[in-house]
Amino acid sequence: MHLLDIPKYLYEFPLDTFIGEGCVLDVRGSKTVEYKEEYEHRIQEGQIVILYTGHSRHYGQPDYFNDYPVLTQGFAECLVRRKVKMIGLDTPSPDTYPFDIHSYLFHHHVLIIENLTRVEQLLALNRFEIIALPLNIQADSSIARVIAREIGDGAL
């Protein structure tokens, strides 16, 4: 894909980009989210990957925006290789300045959901769907109401 073919604004992405089967990874206790070979099998193409770091419990405290787990380049490359739609985190960002992971993911059509809460509830589900619809505006980011709903036997 050529760099010029990448949508510049969220409203240019197809709606089905923002809806899909989820995959939750429990990465609590890590300061960096590293690549693990098991992710090649756990993450399926087209999924929305949600990371549970446990960091959302610090929301409203000064350290929430300063000291949070970040993704490694190796993990970001895995997400791209697995062709995920989006990555969701219970942190304010997948990385820090100069935001290389942000750029890498966006340029590979992997969108980012930040500041999620109650992610621990997904750990008990066998299958779930994520719906994260941004506002239909000309912008590269947007607030969104993000919900997860359990998928029953054979549904989706």
Question: What would you say this structure looks like, in words?
Answer:
It is a single chain. The chain is of the alpha/beta class and 156 residues long. Helix content is 13%, strand content 24%. It has 3 helices and 8 strands. The chain has helices spanning 39-42, 73-81, 100-107; strands at residues 19-26, 32-33, 48-52, 70-71, 86-89, 111-113, 128-134, 144-150. The strands form 2 sheets. Strands 6-5-3-1-7-8 form a 6-stranded mixed β-sheet, with helices on one face. A two-stranded parallel ribbon has the order 2-4. Strand 5 (86-89), helix 3 and strand 6 form a beta-alpha-beta unit. The chain is globular, with a radius of gyration of 15 Å. The protein starts with 18 loop residues before the first strand and ends in a 6-residue tail after the last strand. The model has no long low-confidence stretch (mean pLDDT 92).
Helices and strands, with pairings:
Elements: E1 19-26, E2 32-33, H1 39-42, E3 48-52, E4 70-71, H2 73-81, E5 86-89, H3 100-107, E6 111-113, E7 128-134, E8 144-150
Parallel strand pairs: 1-3, 2-4, 3-5, 5-6
Antiparallel strand pairs: 1-7, 7-8
